[in-house]
Amino acid sequence: MGKDILDIKDVCECNRCLGSRTLHPQASLINLESPNFEQDFVKFEFYAILLIEDSTDNCNCCGRRYYDFSNATMVFLTPGEVFRMNAENTLPDKGLLLAFHPDLLFHTALNNHIDNYTFFFYRKEEALHLSQWEKAIVIRCFEAIGRELHHDIDSHSSTLISRLIELLLDYCSRFYERQFITREEKNKTLLKELNSLINDYIASGRMRQGTFPTPEYCSEPLNLSPAYFKDLLKFETGKTLEEHVQQKRLEAARRLLLEADNTPASVARQLGFPNVHKFSHIFKKITGTSPNAYRDSQN
Questions:
Q1: Of 163, 182, 201, which residue sits at a domain end?
Q2: Residue 2 phi/psi, 5° resolution?
C-alpha cells in the first residue's frame, strides 16, 4: 500500500496539492472542491480537521447511523495518520480542511493539553455528526480562523490562531458529548457486551496471574478505538475501565463467597488479589462488611 499513499509533509505542500494559497506556513484553511489525487490514501504530517459537507450517500463510511445528525461530519487526524474517505475518494468532494503544524503550538497553552482532546485518536468511523445549529457554530469558528490567517503575521499570530483552534475543539468536545446522548440506546447495548466480556474474563481465571483486561482488549471486540471506548465508558458510567473492572470483580466476589467450597482466601486468589488481607480490606471498604461477615449474613 506504501506507493498508494500521498505523504504530505507540511502545510505549504498541502496548499500546493489542493490548490490553495499559503497565508501562513504553519496553518491553512482549505476549501475542498473535488480534490483529485492519483493515490488512494493521504497522510498528513500535521494536525488535520475535516469538515465534510454531507450528501445522502457521503458519510456512512464515517460511522453515521439513523440515530445521528446528517448536516455535516467532522474527522480529526493526528500528525502522520493515514486517511481515506472511501473506495472512490481519497478526500471528500466538498468541505473544509483545517491544517496546522504542531510547531504552530509551541509556547501556546494549547500545546500543553491538545492530547486531552481525545477525539483526535478516534477512528474515522467514530466521526462527529453535526446538527444544523452545530454546523453553523463550527463554520463560524473556521471563518474566525480564516480571518486571522489573512492578517499579516506578527508576534501575536500563533497565540491567536491557537486560541481560535482551541475554541473550535472545545465546541467539538461539547458536540461529542451530545452525540453520546443521542446514541444512548446503542451505548447501552455496548455496555451490556462489555459487561459480558469482563464477566467471561473473570470466569476464565486469567485474573489469578494478576492480569486484567486493557482498553485494547475490551475495545477490539466492540469494534471501537481504545480512545473512543474509554470516553464512552467514562460518559456512561462515570468510571474508568480500572474502576469498572473493580466493580465487576466485587460483584463476582459476592457470588463466589456464597458458594460453599469457597473461602475468602480462595476467592482472593481467583480474582487476582495479592493476598486475602488486601481483598478483605477492599471488600469491606466498598461493601461496608468483611467477606466472612457477608457470607454469614447471606447464609
A1: 182
A2: -55, -45
- Domain residue limits at 209: 185-298
Dmax over CA atoms of the chain, in Å, equals 78
Which residues are bridge partners to 32 per DSSP? 95
CB atoms within 10 A of CB 184: 10
265: domain CATH number is: 1.10.10.60
pLDDT along the chain (299 residues), means of 10: 82 96 97 88 97 72 92 97 92 95 96 97 97 98 98 96 98 98 96 97 91 96 98 97 95 92 93 94 92 86
C-alpha cell of residue 171: 465546541
Q: pTM score, two decimals?
A: 0.92
- Locate all alpha helices (DSSP H) within 102-223, ordered by sequence: 109-113, 132-150, 157-182, 184-203, 215-219
Same domain, 117 and 169: yes
- Kindly state whether residues 238 and 133 are assigned to the same domain: no
Alpha-helical (H) ranges within the chain are: 11-18, 109-113, 132-150, 157-182, 184-203, 215-219, 226-237, 241-257, 264-270, 276-287, 291-298
pLDDT given at position 1: 46
Q: Taking the CA atoms of the chain, what radius of gyration do you get in angstroms? A: 24
Q: Are 61 and 93 in contact (CB under 8 A)?
A: no
Of 164, 182, 200, the last residue of a domain is 182
